[in-house]
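Need a sequence for this fold. Nothing fancy.
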């Protein structure tokens, strides 16, 4: 996480130099509103050294959603207190406040209910483990019941869940093959429809994989860009090395040097098993695989955790 600091006095600017940051500036030659706007949607943490009121007014036009808003902190110019004022859990402001406070010898002022009650926060747990939250309203309800000691429930699953709080691990790989010149829209519809029909949450997808000959295929590149996912390609030789048994196509082998693109690409990407074997439609194929990942569940959450049955394991 990049850290950007703005200060309003010379004393504040001197303090900023004690904190490791990508940029540290003094307000006398900077427009505050423009500075906030330039950093607010970049995933960077913003630190104001000065009055909390200044920070609140400066960020208010840009605050939209706790799932996307950045960490924002305030530090007094003497370095006595570090106060997270936005995105304490998901954005990591609370943890950052503790780190900065430790570095400069200050007190971190944490006001979120879970922290005050020495309880882990479900959204912070999700962020630390790169898990998406299926429904923020359910997450809020979970936190409320947790504080009330009212046995909340949650699960960790790559499948779409609507009736329970679900944390979605990023461990699904799409192996895709497609005929040359397929339109981005047609491939997109095929992939989205396939995921939906098998109730696999698209937020669980971590990678798109294919064969080397498809490295410039616009439909594949477009899909990866839309989903903000890496597009990984393998040579036919690499695909042929995978030990798992896959379906065979003489035509594909003759054309590309490997008998199967989508299933082999899934296993070459590190997936341990298939959620969906090769599925074909109008010159396009997809296989869906799942990688194993390790997630340590806090003791306080273990009684609330429901281990989904009849689902491939992707966590501990």
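Here you go.
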């Amino acid at each position: 996480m990049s850290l950007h600091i703005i200060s309003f006095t010379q004393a504040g600017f001197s303090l900023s130099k004690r904190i490791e940051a990508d940029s540290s500036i003094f307000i006398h030659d900077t427009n505050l509103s423009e500075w906030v706007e330039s950093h607010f949607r970049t995933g960077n943490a913003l630190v104001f050294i000065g009055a909390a009121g200044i920070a609140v007014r400066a960020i208010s036009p840009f605050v939209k959603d706790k799932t996307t808003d950045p960490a924002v902190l305030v530090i007094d110019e003497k370095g006595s207190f570090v106060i997270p004022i936005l995105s304490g859990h998901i954005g990591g402001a609370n943890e950052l406040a503790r780190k900065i406070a430790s570095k400069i010898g200050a007190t971190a002022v944490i006001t979120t209910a879970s922290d005050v009650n020495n309880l882990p926060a479900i959204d912070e747990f999700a962020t630390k483990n790169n898990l998406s939250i299926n429904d923020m309203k359910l997450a809020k309800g979970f936190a409320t019941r947790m504080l009330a000691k009212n046995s909340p429930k949650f699960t960790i699953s790559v499948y779409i869940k609507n009736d329970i709080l679900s944390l979605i691990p990023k461990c699904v790989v799409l192996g895709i093959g497609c005929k040359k010149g397929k339109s981005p829209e047609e491939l997109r519809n095929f992939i989205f429809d396939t995921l939906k029909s098998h109730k696999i949450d698209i937020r669980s997808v971590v990678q798109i994989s294919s064969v080397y000959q498809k490295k410039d295929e616009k439909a594949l590149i477009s899909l990866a860009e839309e989903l903000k996912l890496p597009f990984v390609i393998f040579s036919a030789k690499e695909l042929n090395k995978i030990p798992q048994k896959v379906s065979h196509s003489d035509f594909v082998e003759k054309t590309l040097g490997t008998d199967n693109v989508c299933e082999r690409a899934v296993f070459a990407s590190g997936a341990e098993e298939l959620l969906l074997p090769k599925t074909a439609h109008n010159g396009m194929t997809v296989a869906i695989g799942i990688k194993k990942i390790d997630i340590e569940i806090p003791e306080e959450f273990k009684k609330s955790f429901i281990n989904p049955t009849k689902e491939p394991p992707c966590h501990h």
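For context: The mean pLDDT is 91.
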